[in-house]
Amino acid sequence: MYSKLLEDFRSNYMMYVPLMIILSSCMGSIAAMFILGQERLFAQYVELTLCVSVCMIFNAAILAQMKTKIVFNLLILSLLSTTLLILINI
């Protein structure tokens, strides 16, 4: 399953680039909104730092034109971490 998704990702990489940036940034901003809506101080800063860092690393990997496998893995990491942060803070 993973190799099939990766092969499709590689073949349509240039088409997926704008979609990936928009998806990761939107998920990150939704997670940041939920994190900032909480009343915890220290945990809020840690979660927000994690959210922003993961999304920025993913966007930097695209801009640096890293290998497609690295970008694909960072996309999965970004989406999973922001989804987890959203679920924690709902």
Automatic annotation (TrEMBL):
Q: Which residues cross the membrane?
A: 12-36, 42-63, 70-88
Could you list this entry's UniProt keywords, alphabetically sorted.
Membrane, Transmembrane, Transmembrane helix
Q: Which superkingdom does the taxonomy of this entry point to?
A: Bacteria
Q: What is this protein called?
A: Uncharacterized protein
Question: What is the protein's species of origin?
Answer: Aquimarina intermedia
